[in-house]
Amino acid sequence: MANRHHRAAALIQDATRDSRLLPPIPALQRVTSSGHQADGKDAAPPDNTFKLQESRSSHPTELSCEAKAALTLQCAFRRILARREKKRRLKEQQEYNELMDRLQREAFVALVKREQEEAERERKKEEEEKRKQREEQQRRKRMLEAAFEGDVEEMKAVLKEVADLDTKNGVGTDENGKVVRLQHHLNMVDCTDANGNTPLSEASGGGHPEAIRMLIENGGNPNSR
């Protein structure tokens, strides 16, 4: 037993002596947050947080299947909305163009219709004037022929037609109306033909004193031919 203890003590001494001959092991150093190196006895256990953050920032996190599906649906829905909006605007533009075309056509048709109506009114007015002129010429012819033949009753009938025509045309019986009526009456009594002959001259030429007296009583000019 004593020999064993002696050998163990000798081995410990040899190991101690050999360890003294080895070069010293440098202490562990770490860089502090202030930029200084710390010795090994103050060093903290290695921190992997920075490495994890750097790894996460350099490699973006991939979307999950649910997120990808939601994003795909959202994009598809936006495309559908965009197509619907485009279709709506195109429809509105088409309706606007059709409305403008229709309004232009209606305006053109209305303009043509107004022009046609105006032309029709002018045509009727001209026809009415021509009709009145023909009737006036016929009355004058009847007046001259009746005077030449001495037909007093026919001359009175012609003068009555003139008065009735004034009434039909709205000529009143006031002072102004009387002036207009008298002018129309005298125009018929002293009417002329293409040669300038008047009813009084025709009655004189035909030798009808009663017709001459009737014409003078109705304002005939004795100095007429």
TrEMBL record:
Q: Which keywords belong to this entry? A: ANK repeat, Repeat
- Give start and end residues of every ANK repeat: 195-225
Is Repeat a UniProt keyword of this protein? Answer: yes
List the residue ranges of the region (Disordered): 31-63, 117-136
Q: Which GO terms describe its molecular function?
A: ubiquitin-protein transferase activity
Would I find Repeat among this entry's keywords? yes
Task: Give any Pfam family that matches.
Answer: Ank
* InterPro entries per the UniProt record, alphabetical: Ankyrin_rpt, Ankyrin_rpt-contain_sf
GO CC terms on record? BRCA1-A complex; BRCA1-BARD1 complex
Extract one GO BP annotation from the record.
protein K6-linked ubiquitination
Q: Which PANTHER family match?
A: ANKYRIN REPEAT DOMAIN-CONTAINING PROTEIN 39-RELATED, BRCA1-ASSOCIATED RING DOMAIN PROTEIN 1
State the name under which the record lists this protein.
Answer: IQ motif and ankyrin repeat domain-containing protein homolog
Q: What is the lineage of its organism?
A: Eukaryota, Metazoa, Chordata, Craniata, Vertebrata
Q: Which gene encodes it?
A: LOC112542416
